[in-house]
Amino acid sequence: MLVKRWRERRRRSQLDVSLAADLSTRHLSYIETGRSTPSPEMIERICDELDVPLRERNRFHLAAGFAPAHPERPFADLGAARQAVDAVLTGMEPNPAVAVNVCWDMLAANDAMLAFLDGLPDELGRAPVNILRATLHPDGLAPQVRNLGQWRSHVLRRVRRQLERTAADGLGELLAELEGYGDGEVPSEDADHDLVVPLQLATPYGDLSLLYAATVFGSPRDVTLDEIAIETFFPADAATGRLLRALADARG
Q: Over the Cα atoms of the chain, what is R_g?
């Protein structure tokens, strides 16, 4: 059933997947109905074609009676990968950057990002800080977001796409919570027709206009690493760039 569920999630036919994974349509049908048990190698071939996240792949292996194929280590124990995350975060200064897991819980952040999160109420600032909750909650940064309706709509669309792609545990509950904030979404036709949606944030030192980019690890083999993304906010205009540098100088 797991194979069928993910095949339908990816909107792929049995014929399409069987050809791509180099097996017969009958064999794939038997795997989907439980009449045939796939080998670990076959599981990986099918999962490759369906772009199944590593955490879900382990469930495929367990359902077939095998041990999980992909390890899951704590973030602190990722060795060189953890050092790479820290190097990226530090290298992004004075731009705010944060490493998050699949449910947007903060794993690490640079000084610029921590400065933005400083002052959150206890219920939002207690570890692990959820970046989306901290940004959109009425008691968080939401009152400072100049384009809150537009930004909230953009975030909700992004989380829905992420949930469709990953089916990650806890992400649906987070989405439902975020959808409960505010008074609805701004339709895309009412939003500014920029190339990307900026985060327009008011601060005591002046307004910031920020664009973001996401960085992920290529070809991860660990579940934790597979779910890590580094979100970096870059200045959308010269004034924001000057203000970020000035704030970094003040912290230094």
A: 21
